[in-house]
């Protein structure tokens, strides 16, 4: 199948997975094949506490999945780097630390190599002060390390996976049959509006009606959906028109569209096309081209480690060493915990001392404590 047709079909299945979670495993298998790898995962991590879990995955055995979250997540050199990642932008191991250094880590020697894995390309889907949600594809020895072609293919699917994950989180249901689609969505705490290609509202749930009645975020002009924020209104109507031509036409439009209310409060809208795939039945029932989900935006507060890294221009590896020294102690213990050589730790620690302007471990501890305190600064 030509790449364009393969991608178009996959995008449709990705959006169907937003309404039917049972589709995710098959979607991930097809996404992994497209990007170039035997395994893929949708997962989350608490970057500060070094814990996490899998939403859906394919190609990684239960044994190795459990082993990672029980043991190797704590020494994973990529975990801290997630704080630096830009939403939707593919990152590979070599973007985080020298690849030769990665080959010396316990994570590679004891977890990746026994599975024949040599690299992973991942992209951030959502981020809070302490945790991240991500999509990743693992590369096998036969695939080689991540290259430009891998990144290109990753960029083709990541925005659509992000849209489906964010909408799936809002809906929080396993299936949405056409006959009960609106009834189920009526119970959502988020505002939901079904619109046609011209932006005319054909159905709204209770919260959607409340938002329209209030008029601070959304309103109607001649039955058409309007937003107080002019740029948001244009962005939404562009995606409504595109949705009428199918999933591929929508592209990356309408993902997490920011809307500023008259009150100054920030809201966010997600748009799900309804003219293709299994969602098409729901769209035809209401002559709708798209479903719009609107909710108040969460306050984005950067975590203390992220603030420290940006303040002192630390690389992901340097931040990882800094946090480990503060949490664990001396160089030998840090090297043992992270599964790297003591010389490697000393090299990066020297860079940390130089960039932060301190030269003792006790001063690093004080520095971290200052950023963690709500009274700091």
Question: Could you give a short account of the major beta sheet?
Answer: 5 strands, antiparallel
Spatial order of the strands in the main sheet? 2-1-5-4-3
State the CATH architecture of the largest domain.
Answer: 2-Layer Sandwich
CATH topology category name of the largest domain: Beta-Lactamase
Strand-residue fraction?
Answer: 15-25%
> Mean pLDDT, as a whole number?
84
Overall spatial form: globular
Write down the CATH class of the largest domain.
Alpha Beta
Low-confidence stretches: 173-179, 373-377
Give an account of the 3D structure.
- The chain is an alpha+beta fold and 377 residues long.
- It folds into three domains: 169 residues, 2-Layer Sandwich (Beta-Lactamase), CATH 3.30.450; 119 residues, Beta-Lactamase, CATH 3.30.450; 69 residues, Orthogonal Bundle (Arc Repressor Mutant, subunit A), CATH 1.10.10.
- The protein is 45% helix and 20% strand.
- The protein has 16 helices and twelve strands.
- The strands form three sheets. Strands 2-1-5-4-3 form a five-stranded antiparallel β-sheet, sandwiched between helices. The protein has a five-stranded antiparallel β-sheet with strand order 7-6-12-11-10, with helices on both faces. The chain has a two-stranded antiparallel sheet with strand order 8-9.
- Strand 4 and strand 5 form a beta hairpin.
- Helix 13 crosses helix 16.
- The radius of gyration is 23 Å and the shape is globular.
């Amino acid at each position: 199948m030509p790449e364009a047709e393969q991608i178009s079909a996959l995008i449709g299945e990705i959006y169907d997975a937003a309404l039917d979670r049972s589709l995710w495993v098959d979607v991930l298998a097809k996404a992994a094949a497209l990007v170039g790898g035997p395994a893929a995962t949708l997962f989350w991590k608490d970057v500060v506490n070094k814990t996490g879990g899998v939403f859906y995955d394919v190609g990684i055995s239960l044994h190795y999945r459990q082993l990672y979250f029980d043991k190797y997540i704590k020494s994973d050199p990529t975990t801290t780097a997630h704080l630096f990642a830009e939403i939707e932008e593919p990152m590979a191991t070599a973007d985080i630390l020298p690849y030769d250094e990665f080959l010396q880590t316990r994570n590679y020697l004891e977890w990746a190599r026994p599975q024949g894995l040599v690299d992973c390309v991942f992209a951030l889907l959502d981020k809070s002060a302490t945790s991240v949600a991500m999509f990743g594809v693992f590369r096998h020895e036969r695939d080689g390390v991540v290259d430009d072609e891998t990144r290109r293919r990753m960029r083709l699917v990541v925005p659509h996976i992000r849209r489906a994950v964010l909408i799936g989180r809002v809906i929080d249901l396993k299936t949405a049959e056409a006959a009960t689609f609106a009834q189920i969505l009526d119970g959502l705490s988020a505002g939901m509006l079904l619109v046609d290609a011209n932006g005319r509202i054909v159905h709204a749930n209770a919260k959607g009606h409340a938002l329209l009645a209030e008029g601070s975020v959304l309103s109607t002009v001649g039955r058409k959906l309007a937003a107080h924020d002019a740029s948001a209104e244009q962005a939404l109507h562009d995606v409504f028109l595109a949705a009428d031509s199918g999933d591929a036409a929508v592209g990356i439009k309408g993902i997490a569209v920011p809307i500023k209310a008259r009150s100054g409060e920030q809201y966010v809208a997600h748009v799900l096309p309804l003219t293709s795939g299994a969602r098409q039945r729901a769209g035809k029932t209401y002559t709708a081209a798209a479903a719009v989900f609107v909710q108040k935006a969460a306050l984005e507060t950067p975590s203390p480690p992220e603030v420290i890294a940006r303040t002192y221009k630390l690389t992901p590896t340097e931040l990882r060493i800094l946090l480990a020294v503060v949490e664990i102690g001396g160089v030998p213990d840090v090297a043992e915990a992270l599964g790297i050589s003591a010389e490697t730790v000393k090299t990066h620690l020297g860079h940390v001392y130089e960039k932060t302007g301190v030269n003792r471990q006790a001063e690093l501890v004080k520095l971290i404590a200052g950023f963690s305190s709500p009274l700091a600064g």
